Amino acid sequence: MLDMHVFREEAEKIRADHDRRGLPYDNIEKVIELDTKWKIALRETDELRRKKNEAARGIGAAKKSGNDAEAQRILSEVANLGAQISEMESVTDAFLKQRDSVRMSIPNLLHPDVPSGADESGNTKHSLHGKKPSFDFEPKTHNELIEENKWVDLERAAKITGSRFYFLKGDLARLEMALQAYAVDFIQERGFTFVQPPVMMNRTAYEGVTDLSDFETVMYGINPDGYYMIATSEHPLTAMYMQETVPEELLPIKIVGVSPCFRREVGAHGQSDRGIWRVHQFTKVEQIIIATPETSWELHEELLQNCIDLWDALGLHYEVVNICTGDMGTVAARKYDLEAWLPGAKAFKEIVSCSNCTDYQANRLDIRYGTPGHPNQPTVHTLNSTAVATSRALVAIIEQNQLEDGRVQIPAVLRPYMQGQEVLEPCSW
User: Are 379 and 3 in contact (CB under 8 A)?
Assistant: First the structure.
């Protein structure tokens, strides 16, 4: 969420940002109104405390002078003031909770270079990479390829879980493991530390990294414990330093994480209903950086370059796009997407998102930097980028590298992770 000082001192910045997004000012004004009410209630509460303390000092003097009646009167006054204080504390807390609840719904301030647009059609091309594959045969969709080669069992997975789950088998399962190992090794070589996060988070931590009012609908909750299965390793890795002050000399902290991810993905009926493109469980290798505000925009470009270099090494055809105002979520200030060419669909489809969230998540999580234990330390910036979401990477690889006989050529950089094997062979069952 946005720092409160922006609402108090630079509200026009937020209004201007809402103009870019095509949003009304209602919630901005509500935050300012509730903040004013909270400050008034806080002052009234402090004044009642002052009166109570002042009255309490008179009890001893009254008793010392032997005026028990006066002492009793003051005790009654103190008790009455105590009740008023309790009531005002409840009012004050209510205003604060209301204010911050509305404040959490206010999106991050966009970077000036974010292109304007009503929806994804307004996204602009950043760069184009790799050679578009050409075939002397009619290319198949990934759905056809996985069925023909028996690499995925959707029906048996649906029997024990439901739709959009799958068993991954044979060489395609081995390729998925190879992708994980390759991506982790690739990002580690660039100074990132490998971390495996927990796959569940409590509500407090989850509210720190995303707008639960919007995102909760696609998440799996665990009752009665009150946990959520993680939708991406970005979330626990970003929340790792929640309520801490990180020594500045440790920044930037660069993490590469790998985890299963769980989402109630909903897609249009058709191709995305089948196969492994849009599923409820998948594995993702994620890049996370915790940094100072002065370095975050440079590091955002570094994350993007890591993705470009990794996907170039895989030898795939894809484009990088700048996400526009109408396609931007709540948390990011700027975002790039990588979209791979899918010959079967004859379209580019999203495979990577790369975001600078500035101090938006850190304000929610209370992550600061400087000298631990000292008050009023500055807030960090958090950045994240997919390296590889393996199910979507597999789709791009098998569609772009398919052979006429239905087998698939393995990208050269992944062959060492598959004992030198060059082609994915069908599964026998």
Answer: yes
Fold annotation for 120-424:
BirA Bifunctional Protein; domain 2 (3.30.930)
Residue 362's nearest CA partner among 234, 212, 200, 244 is: 244
Provide the strand spans (E) within 138-179: 152-153, 167-168
Residues contacting 284, CB < 8 A, separation 6+? 232, 233, 258, 259, 261, 386, 388, 389, 390
Task: Return d(Cα 34, Cα 97) in angstroms, integer.
Answer: 9
Residue 135 is classified by DSSP as -
Residue 131 amino acid letter: K
Residues with Cβ within 8 Å of 152's Cβ and at least 6 positions away in sequence, in order, are: 146, 166, 167, 168, 169, 172, 275, 276
Which residue type is seen at 289?
Answer: I
Residue closest to 288 by CA, chosen among 230, 373, 219, 327: 230
Bridge partners of 193? 255
Q: How far apart are CA 216 and CA 266, in angstroms?
A: 13
**Spans of all domains in the chain:** 4-103, 120-424
Query: What pTM was computed for the model?
Result: 0.91
Answer CATH for 4-103 from 3.40.830.10, 2.60.15.10, 3.40.50.10490, 1.10.287.40: 1.10.287.40
Query: What does each C-alpha distance from 386 to 122, 238, 257, 306 come to in angstroms?
Result: 22, 13, 10, 10
Q: What is the mean pLDDT of the chain?
A: 93
Q: Are strands 221-222 and 281-291 parallel, antiparallel or unpaired?
A: unpaired
> Do residues 106 and 27 touch, judged by C-beta distance below 8 A?
yes
- Cross-strand pairs, 275: none
**DSSP 3-state of 359:** coil
pLDDT per position as a tens digit, 163-176: 899 999 999 999 99
Q: What is the pLDDT of residues 382-428, one digit of tens each?
A: 999 999 999 999 999 999 999 999 999 999 999 999 999 999 999 99
CA 221 to chain centre: 17
- Rounded CA-CA distance 126/348 in Å is 14
